[in-house]
Write the structure tokens for this entry.
Amino acid sequence: MKKITKILLLLNICFGQNDNPVATFSILGYDPESGMVGGAVQSRVFSVGNGVLWGEANIGMIATQAYVDVSYGPQGLELLKKGLSPAQTVKTLLKNDPDPHPENWPKKARQFSVMDAEGNVSTHTGDKASFWAGHKYGRYCSAQGNILASEAVVNNMVTAFEETKGHLSMRLLRALEAGQNAGGDTRGMQSAAILIVKKDGGVWLNNDVVLRLQVDDNTEPIKELRRLIEKAHERFDWK
């Protein structure tokens, strides 16, 4: 019980939305030409990448946010492995959530998105998630966020993803930039992250991670994330 209490305390410090609400917006995306699936996120919270993005090659990608239950990530990937669709995975995660702290960490406020290895996606925004909260589907993508400036944030993210050409990392990055340009979260910026997976798609042997980058504490995290992604493009000659 002591370990559980410590974990909950840490989550409340990092992702708490009651006394010190934070805002998060993310996008999950799939590239049918390369087979890559990935996600990117920005938030006014320290090291957001540690609690939001979960991915496994040939399985899919999950984003967990808004009164986040981090276990949705690994649990969701396991459900996808068992053959459940993203929509079925979303329903199962919600059904199996015991909602242990409904007063200050309610299940009805959670937001998360599930994408499989073929780009099929299902997203849930709880009706108690902090305003403005919502999500929007696009072609091979889903953008979602909470405590945002407006619905334009997710709308612009989807448009940017669909209109950007080239490597999946740049499409995800442009989506984050478009979301921020539309007002982003209402509290500002602090951290950002990106994760892309594909079977044997990374450098070195038996590496399914195409790209994993985290900007944990920066006044302009998306700008720093762009610098790192551009460095990866230069290093690996991505087009």
